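Before relying on records like the one below, remember that each one covers exactly one chain. Contacts with other chains, cofactors or solvent are not represented anywhere in the record.
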Amino acid sequence: MNAGFTILEAVGGVMTNSTAILANAVHDFGDSFALGQAWYFEKLSSRTGDHRYSYGYQRFSIFGALVSALMMLASSFFVLVQAVPRLLHPEHPNAKGMVAFALVGVAVNALAMLRLKGQKGMNARVIALHLLEDVLGWLSVLLVSVVLLFFPVPMLDPLLAVAITLYILSGIVKNLRAMVPVFLQAVPRDISLDKVVSEIQATPHVSGVHHAHLWSLDGERTVFTAHLEIDCDLDPAAHASIKEEIRALVARHGIYHSTVELEYPGEVCRNEPRKGG
């Protein structure tokens, strides 16, 4: 429903000569694409690992979000290119046509919100917020178009278009700032690598930790790897005890997947450069 109305909006924006309606079309296009890619990539991300993607398909979820953000970024700049020159040279939009489209826009998005009534869960709440933003955007278009019916202030249309687009861009920038560290495998902000390492070093028989890495798989699931230096040879029971302590430790930090390698006294780390090699 949202995608179909977006096409109608784009046509209506051209027909009414309204950059505000075009800006709303971009907003609704972004919502439609976000919902579509979220449904597809979230479904894909639930697949388990295989010979091609050994960690699984979780990162496809954030990849879809990145594609959506980049498309919205391009669409927003297109609207700004159309709207900013009109601030200097205003053109009169078709106010009556704007009123008609605004009324339909409010009705369509309000109906979509009603379809979510009674639905529970995070996804339903997020979608409801998107639709509420759309309703408020169309109410703004309706207000401006009613004013234009009685007062010849054509600059209001591009001003509203710029305001809507800047609001969209602020959300895009916020999302990109959250996604880029995930792609660059940065340490998640909510987990301290130093704290995890110090707690591991406090484990009996662990004399040191190196090659410790912590990154997010998809913005939600965190992965941890490390090499543990053991201060003595361990019997099977002690070996199993250390593994169990590390397992409980990473679980306390909310780490989704961990891999640790134990190095015994005199053992050379296989990741260290060999002399003369």
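The chain has two domains: 2-183, 193-263.
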